Amino acid sequence: MLKLPNPGQLAGRVLPILRWSRTYDLRTGIGDLIAGITVALTLIPQSIAYASLAGFEPQYGLYASFVGGFVYGVMGTCPQINIGPTALLSLLTFTYTSGTNPDHAILLCFVAGIVQLAAGIVQLGFLVEFVSLPVVSGFTSAAAITIASSQIKGLLGLKFSAETFISTWKEVFRHIGDTKMEDTLLGLACCIVLMGMKALKDIRLKDPQDEKSRRSTLIMQRTLWFVGVSRNAVVVVIAAAVAYFVHQTKDEPLILTGNITPGLPKPQVPPFSSIVGNTTVTGAEMLAHLGSGLLVVPLVGVISNVAIAKAFSKGSTLDATQEIVALGACNIVGAFFRSFPVNGSFTRSAVSDASGVRTPAAGFYTGFIVLLTLALLTPYFYFIPRAALAAVIMCAVLHMVDVAILRRLWVTNRIDLIPLLGTFLCCLGLGIEVGLICGVGIDVLLLLYYHSRPSLNVKLVDEDHLPPHFAIHPIGGLHFASAERVRSELTSLKDSKKKSNSLALETLTIVGDMNGSNGANGVNGAIANGSVGGMRSPNILVIYCDALIRLDYTFLQSIKMMVSEWSAAGPVVWCDASAALQEQLNSVVHEPLYCDKEQLPSFLIGISLAQAQVNGTNDTHL
Fold first, then answer.
1. Which domain holds residue 88?
2. Are residues 70 and 96 in the same domain?
């Protein structure tokens, strides 16, 4: 009888807030509040910058920043994760919506959320495991370089349109003569300050002996850490102040962010039609324009989110399916508030973890601060220089370039360098979405190659207490891709056995001819006894099935032919075959021989004796 799940347990699994809120207290709340405020100081300038990276007005970055905190706070399981705009998804959004309008990005967010939610509900989280770490590393490293390259124009004060890594650098060299010195100096100064302030949080002060000095040192240590963590907000505020005073004395020396639409977004259904220029675009045309992005964007979002959750799980069990469901819900709800696709940010999650976060409720505080910013502070964002935002993005993505993995792969498994470098080069040359598909394709080809080269561990067993025989130990599953190779290896094994016997027979015949009739009788005796050249001739094949999981139909047909070919010389014995495997073999092999490993010695001796009797009978008739 089907047992229905307990409604309380089901609700607690879908809405984890029902579990951890029972023990929520003041101490926990203070930890979440501090983490929420700290993350907000990182999130707000980043979201404005990432909106620019996605090709939209700054307020869309703030629209995408507050919903995720509230939804994930209710449905998420990892306290450290902060859902909002990220460099990677912003770049992907730009890739698929360039030349359109924000409505396409909002629809992309809605559909991506549906895909993620459906994948979580039907338990498809395991599909993420088919994208290997080398592919992910090559993809993120190439994306980081592409993102940094796309910000060169903002850093140098250039104006041009480009989408890919190659086209961006072509345009940079073409317009390099139009570089604005003011924007360049400000951008470089922001990069230097950001890198310097990042180092502040890693400074460790010496611990003094007395209690009073220790307390002062602790306050100083935390101050340095807080200044380092809030570096994006500090740099953006200072750059905006500089731009404000400069623009009072000189006519537009810097490229500014400009007017930002104030106020909160009104909840509305995601757009299924839009107007681009003077043309009305239907929902079907919008979906057709988004194309492969409808799968690539949710896939990348899921991979990133699950990877971050695993990194901060600290050994505890991770419910990957719930993480996928929560991310899907964040994107679906966010689309009703004009958000473009979002996911978890590793940088902000690390900040949250270092701030002492206790529960996912930290997202509530972060979301509330973003709402206050939208309601009250947007008029003051007018003077934020584009060069400062470009510096924020470039410094944020530098850590995504994973150089250390090259050495690790060189030491552990050099074959994995192929999908990593293949993904990296394809992402830079063909575009990051095509590069990801190419990387997965390379992984699939390598997987098929390994399946077509199974480990058989073929060896000749020639011990005094056992009849000589060949033994193979296949591991895992034998599939259609490996059928022909396995059959050819066994055929070549049989042929080499015949050749060695033939060579030994020729040698004995020559010796017999030299010694007259007695030598000839010795040759005949060796053949009759199954011994050639003083060695016993192996003609039994033992296949150990204890590590064999399954055989597919194509391989079974190949097995049928292989057994037929080998049986002309000797029997094939299946050792430790499971009931399911025996059922498969019985359908294609005529009267297969089965035995257990304990029975194998006596089983082989019995076969050898039976063969000797048959050979003796044949010699008598001759």
1. 8-177+256-272+281-385+402-444
2. yes
Residue 340 neighbours by CB distance under 10 Å: 32
DSSP 16: T
Q: CB burial class (10 A; 0-12, 13-18, 19+) of residue 177?
A: exposed
Q: What is the pLDDT of residue 506?
A: 46
Query: What's the CA gap between 447 and 53, in Å, rounded?
Result: 36
- Of residues 490 and 116, more confidently modeled: 116
Residue-by-residue DSSP string for 259-311: ----SPPPP-PPPSEEEETTEEEEHHHHHHHHTTHHHHHHHHHHHHHHHHHHH
Check residue 385 and report its DSSP letter: B
Residue 37, SS3 per DSSP: helix
Alpha carbons 311 and 510: distance in angstroms, whole number: 73
C-alpha–C-alpha distance, residues 593 and 575, integer Å: 8
**Amino acid symbol at 266:** K
Domain count, the chain: 2
Pairwise pLDDT comparison (318 vs 156), residue with the higher score: 156
User: Using CA atoms, how far apart are residues 190 and 179, in angstroms rounded to an integer?
Assistant: 17
When pLDDT is cut at 50, 70 and 90, the band that residue 489 belongs to is: low
Residue 511 scores a pLDDT above 50: no
Are 318 and 362 in a shared domain? yes
Number of H helices, E strands in the chain: 26, 13
What CATH number is attached to the domain comprising 523? 3.30.750.24
Q: Which of 594, 597, 493, 483 is nearest to 539 (CA)?
A: 493
User: What is the number of residues in the chain?
Assistant: 622
Can you tell me the distance from the alpha carbon of 263 to that of 371, in angstroms, rounded to the nearest whole number? 9
DSSP label at 470? Answer: E
Q: Are residues 164 and 44 in the same domain?
A: yes
pTM, two decimal places: 0.72
Listed residue (148, 153, 145) closest to 429, CA to CA? 145
How far is residue 66's CA from residue 437's CA, in Å, rounded to a whole number? 31
Quickly count: other Cβ atoms within 10 Å of residue 182's Cβ. 17
Separation between Cα atoms, residue 204 and residue 179, nearest integer Å: 40
Residue 608's nearest CA partner among 542, 549, 533 is 542
Per-residue pLDDT tens over the stretch 436-450: 888 888 988 887 777
Q: Which pLDDT tens digit goes with each residue over 274-296?
A: 888 788 899 999 999 999 899 99
Together in a domain, 28 and 138? yes
Check if the beta carbon of residue 45 is closer than 8 Å to that of residue 333.
no
